[in-house]
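User: Sequence in, structure out. Go.
Assistant: Echoing your sequence, followed by the structure tokens.
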Amino acid sequence: MTHDPYEVDARFYDLWHPPDGPDIGLWQSFAARTDRPVLEVGVGTGRIALALARAGFDVVGVDPSAAMLAVARAKADRDALDVQLIEGRLPELTFEPRSFGLVLFPLDVFLAFATPDEQLANLAAARRLLHFDGLVILDLPGPAQWLDPGSNGQPLLVYSGVLGGGERLDVWHVREDDLARQERVLRVAYELTAPDGTVRRFLSEHQLRYLYPAETEYVLRAAGLAPTGLYGDYELGPLTNDSERMIVVARGVEG
């Protein structure tokens, strides 16, 4: 059996990622521009896909993590939401060509394609599935969230909160950033502290690859996509040095 690198993350993801995150409204507005289904790549625990389904959109989600999808399916069943959730990697899946009006790579999902070839393969697959007037959107880290080798090896507290049963959840990131390779090894530690002080720790590790804006445009064009918008936040403001997000919108190139 292949190891699922997100098995640990699936257990905790929804505890520190609210279902009404600041990106949901933007994805709903883009989904409303098409009468075709929406494809979410890296659907995870279904935070975005289920929100779109509640709003009345036809949604398909794909993800290679069985553990993440198990959480998403349980929530879809609980709320009686009709969402198609498929385990697998986009380039390896078979869909009818041009069947989607929006292909979404949300919150840092694209970084998980850890080589340039894998990134290109996923965009080329998205292009094949895109309706002639559809859109591909990438939600990437902005300049303010770029790689920082100066913090390599330092535990960074990214979330702390008390859960319903009285346990405190602390989420720590330890990063190993390589600017020359545009890569990050991200180690995530989830610490659960019981009211009596007992601590349990769970660990995961992920390999990520970052992209510059010009490089992103190049790989999109190599996949048959033409960038039509570059933004720095979920309100579609301009991309600046201080932007925490980089939202890239592209259309298919005919011919």
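User: And one key feature?
Assistant: The chain has two domains: 7-144+210-252, 147-209.
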